[in-house]
Design goal:
The termini are far apart. The chain has 60 residues and is of the alpha+beta class. The longest helix has 9 residues. It is built from two helices and three strands. Strand 1 and strand 2 form a beta hairpin.
Length: 60
Amino acid sequence: MVCPFHDDSKPSLRINIQKGCFKCMACEAKGGDLIAFHQKLTGRNFVEACKDLGAWEAER
């Protein structure tokens, strides 16, 4: 998969579904789950990322 964390022209992002982690072989971006991936991609904190992904209901 093409890495969204740097200017990538060849697939360098590896996702291991069994272990639940990702790692880019070029820029060394890595993390452990979908929330970590979203946090890194968007720069949001844990709670904000959870709300973005629908795992946490926004306060009303």
